[in-house]
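Obj.: predict assembly geometry.
Materials: sequence records (below).
Method: joint structure prediction, all chains together.
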Amino acid sequence: MKLLDRLMPSSGIRQVPKSVTIHAVLLAYTVIALFPIIVVVINAFKERRAIFRDPLGLPDSDSFTLVGFQQVLLRSDFGLYSWNSLVVTILAVGLVLLLGAMAAWALTEYKFKGNLLITFLFAMGIMIPIRLGTVSILSLMVSLDLVNTLTALVLVYIAQGLPLAVYILSEFVRTIPKELTEAARCDSVSEYKIFFCVILPLLKPAMATVAVFTMIPIWNDLWFPLILAPGEETRTITLGVQQFVGQYVTDWNSVLSALTLAIVPVLILYTIFSRQLIRGLTSGAVK
Amino acid sequence: MTPSNQHDEKKPFPWHLVFFLGPGLLIYVVFSVYPLLDTLVLSLYNEQQGQSSFVGLQNFITLVTDDTWSQAFWNALGNNFKFFAIHMLVQNPIGLLLAVLLSAPKLRLSGTYRTLIFMPTMLSVVIIGFVWQLLLSPIWGISEDFLYNIGLGQYFDAWLGKEGSALITLAFISVWQFVGIPMMLIYATLLNIPDDIVDASVVDGANSFQTFWHIKLPLILPTIAMVSILTFVANFNAFELIYAVKGALAGPNFSTDLMGTFFYRTFFGFQLQQGSASMGAAVATLMFLIILVGVMLFLFFIQRRIQRFQF
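Observations (raw structure tokens):
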């Protein structure tokens, strides 16, 4: 664009309205994207009458109330649901990262019979959704006596997350210079040590991207918690909110508060990690 | 492969390979590959009173032709294509427009817009479904008031409750949530287009529309193709939004039924109809075939025709 400015100095004048238009459109869409979320969150802090009388107003000293949140915490075990989601997500993402990195390393570094077949098998999993196998997964979990356990969810989510993890991490392993591993081998460092002490630390940035991509679908999933672990003790936050809202659908304070409790932690985490996520999305990690 | 095979005989058994590849491959095969293959096999059997017998393609014939099944099946499939069409016609063009605007040179606050517009994509489909159910509710009346304020009040309706509009409304909710994905991926591709090419076309006298149409659009076509296939797979696998807003019965009168909800009802049963694992497996197999055909078409036609430009 510098070239353009030099060639057509007058275009600087015309650019002002153009950038105003761009800002207007982007701002309008930002409002469209955020408005529904904001309306729900602000109304969660208002009394029932204020919710209906003035849905767009901020809570003031008259209308402010936390009764919805009290009801939610009283009637359902949100702490437990969040804890379950946290345990499942952390275990599954952690194991996807570790096992995915190990598999990606093995598939890119070593030549062996079946390498191509296994690579293809993992690649298929990126496109074919695991939930199509639900009928058999459920009967498998029944026979392993894992129904209504968090273990069942962790195992399924590892299987769900591995294909993309192996793909992205393999791309990344390929960029690591061969000299590095060969030098280590000349010093007769063991293969295990090469991986854990040399390769794994180098994979950290790619693993951050994989972590974010793996985490979101697991945290937000309804299908597998609903089918494999619907019990009160193993309910995840998404299933918990779904059941709660279905049950107390006419209690507006409770419904708005339950949704807010589900939304706010995710938004806080998103604000913290958005740079990493967007860098991952835009760096071409997923082509 | 051959030279390494010759070495294999001398080398000790590759325990490190088992160590690195074993655990991941085992979990993936047991909980993903095997269930999928088992589902395909199960769809060829019929289970009655615990007895399973091989019936060939009978389950599929029942699904496609039997009076009690075929209507629900074709309805769900048709709805799913509508759902997908709305995504393709609305989500991807809006995503493209936002990406082009975001990539305008020297745009201030572009990072902020990007982060905020992408925000709904991060939330659970279930939560988003409930949020919009409240917003569109005639009881609360936010949408109605809004439409009155801009003079379109007479067009308000309980869209989610009407047979004719429920599916379209749900598709728009889904579009609203996921528009960030095409936006982000196209934006990333646009950023990678070197300035020289764009400048060259400007020097040649192209206006910004011509530059976009002749220079940028061909370069982002592969990304648009990829976004399309991602949308296709996600849409033919969709379940949560319908289940959260409309329940497993996908009302009113099954007008919002998609393959995902149809699969769920077939497997677990609903009202008087008993759930059936083998019929459920048959529905899942058809979903598998639809997705497979879509992915294959993408790989063989679109991906082959469109050249990838590397800079």
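Conclusions so far: The radius of gyration of chain A is 25 Å.
To do: check interface contacts against the pulldown list.
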